[in-house]
Design a protein that fits this description.
Elements: E1 5-7, E2 16-17, E3 20-21, H1 22-32, H2 37-44, H3 48-55, E4 59-61, H4 63-73, H5 77-81, H6 95-105, H7 109-127
Antiparallel strand pairs: 1-4, 2-3
Helix pairs in contact: 2-3
């Protein structure tokens, strides 16, 4: 697979949509999904340095890469570009959450019960 990136050789700063650049939004979404740059790069079939360059707005993604990024992140291209928002949508839990749940499931029942009670208490406190 060839590198699907356009090197940003313009003097124009990255375009801000809302209060984020494309790279900032991409990094935020990637982290919210619980993915590392390496994991995202593997999903895309590219090297981690390119993911880093996109997130630092060093590279501007080619239209096909935007589609690939959106698919790998489980969102629409419009959400990735900042044209629409995913606020209020019920999607799949992030990998970060799922990894923690798996660790809890691997514990003995007594420890699971203790951790779940602790989580419930913290959630109640956060709702106040």
């Amino acid at each position: 697979m060839g590198i699907m990136a356009l090197i940003n050789k313009t003097t124009q700063p990255p375009m801000m949509i809302g209060n984020e650049t494309f790279g900032q939004r991409m990094a935020r979404i990637r982290k919210a999904k619980g993915l590392t740059q390496v994991e995202l790069a593997e999903k895309l079939g590219i090297i981690q340095v390119l993911v880093s360059d996109y997130e630092r707005d060093k590279l501007r993604p080619y239209h096909e890469m935007i589609s690939r990024l959106a698919k790998a992140l489980g969102i629409s291209s419009d959400e990735l570009l900042g044209i629409s928002s995913s606020k209020g949508k019920m999607g799949e839990p992030s990998l970060k959450i799922l990894r923690r749940l798996k660790k809890i499931e691997d514990l003995p029942a007594t420890q699971q019960k203790f951790i779940l009670k602790t989580i419930d208490s913290l959630l109640k406190a956060a709702e106040r």
